[in-house]
Amino acid sequence: MKKLYVVGIGPGDRDSMTGAAVKALTEADLIVGYTTYIGLVKAAFAGDEDFEGKEYFETPMTKEMDRCAYALTQANSGKTVAMVCSGDAGIYGMASPILEGAERFPEVEIEVIPGVTAATAGGALLGAPLGHDFAVISLSDRLTPWEVIEKRLKAAAAGDFCIALYNPRSHGRKDALEKAVGILLSAGVDAKTPAGVANSIGREDATIILSRLDAIPYEEVGMTSTVFIGNSATYIDGVRMITPRGYKKG
Amino acid sequence: MKKLYVVGIGPGDRDSMTGAAVKALTEADLIVGYTTYIGLVKAAFAGDEDFEGKEYFETPMTKEMDRCAYALTQANSGKTVAMVCSGDAGIYGMASPILEGAERFPEVEIEVIPGVTAATAGGALLGAPLGHDFAVISLSDRLTPWEVIEKRLKAAAAGDFCIALYNPRSHGRKDALEKAVGILLSAGVDAKTPAGVANSIGREDATIILSRLDAIPYEEVGMTSTVFIGNSATYIDGVRMITPRGYKKG
């Protein structure tokens, strides 16, 4: 059987991977992924006998289509392949492009292995910021027009959703988070709404920031950050950001 | 050190747990949770030496506050306690109520261990239904007025979010999903929008249903179901529900 796993490795440390993810990576002849994620896998399994002689194929961030084509072609040639994604395989991950490309390789069986996404891993570091209904929005406009992102932010504000913002800020998009905050404030979200930042989730140097919507320290938000905005019931108890599970009174 | 872990065990089978979840459960003297989840833990670690002599405390579903009080009190008395939640600890899980109750127990260190939530685990079974921005909404009105749920559904529709619906239907709320679908249709979501159902995720008898918004077979949706509604770009390729990661054209 020709097999391709699309594996969510979570934040990247071995303890954050599921048993199923470890099994798929162990079974694979070839592991394919973005350079940074391949580095995480190699570090997580350093010294592990099962990974001696493992073949790797890495490409820079913007080369998803090359990675997909290579992974599918290699699986079709008979290798057991694992395509790795940070976090979950389906949330802004490689499950979509792999499945979109899979039609041309009907003999390859594709199995998606879910993982711990940054909304939950970062949420755990901050406390329980997503304890009630929430929206996940990426601020990257590389594949999505900014107008769509803006529409989603306004809708999340109108729905009083807790929000997890992925890709909040990078070298090339220094103002994305600030623009998003401006949209939320204009849409009526209270400036005092609790906001939190989780940086470098799953790594030794992980940090969190507890703040409020109008006071997020943008300079401390970067490529490894996930940003959390509360709903109208969220509060900070001093050390944690907590969204109650329910509305005790209507 | 007095320690209380709030552990997301994912769908419940051992392979879906993270290494950190397994470590916390192994370390715990006492495991506390809803009866069904305690059953999953016992099944996952049946025959495991580390779990011989493990103490368990289980309560019915609606007794969250009893569970929290017991877990915190026992941790404060010196036991290492693990409070288990299905899926993630923070997503409609016990992290919020534990942290809300933690103020009275300042000596207890609380650590939230994230897990694979149904949005990602069910998504993996269906393909990649949440490949772009998405909203997670619970249809349970036990702790949330229906008006709030309705507002969130309308907002998710306005934002063209993919949607994962938790607690879509139960014996006591047979019409919740049908009502929610009606709200989405009234809010302008296309009746032909792909919809999927994942039942009994993580179990031997897991099943999926691929359908469309106006044709979900309500009778096949129950307590173990998670329902997925696509965005305007989602499609079904015959065997899978796929939401592309981006909008190639504006």
How would you summarize this macromolecular structure in one to three sentences?
2 copies of one chain form a homodimer. With 250 residues, chain A is of the alpha/beta class.
Strand content of chain A: 15-25%
Quote the distance from N terminus to C terminus of chain A. 55 Å
Helix content of chain A: 25-40%
Question: What structural class should be given to the helix and strand makeup of chain A?
Answer: alpha/beta
The major sheet of chain A is characterized as: 5 strands, parallel
In spatial order, strands of the major sheet of chain A run 3-2-4-1-5
- The topology string of helices and strands of chain A comes to EHEHEHEHEHEEHEHEEEEE
Shape of chain A: elongated
Q: Which regions of chain A contain 5 or more consecutive residues with pLDDT less than 50?
A: none
- Total DSSP helices of chain A: 7
Mean pLDDT of chain A: 95
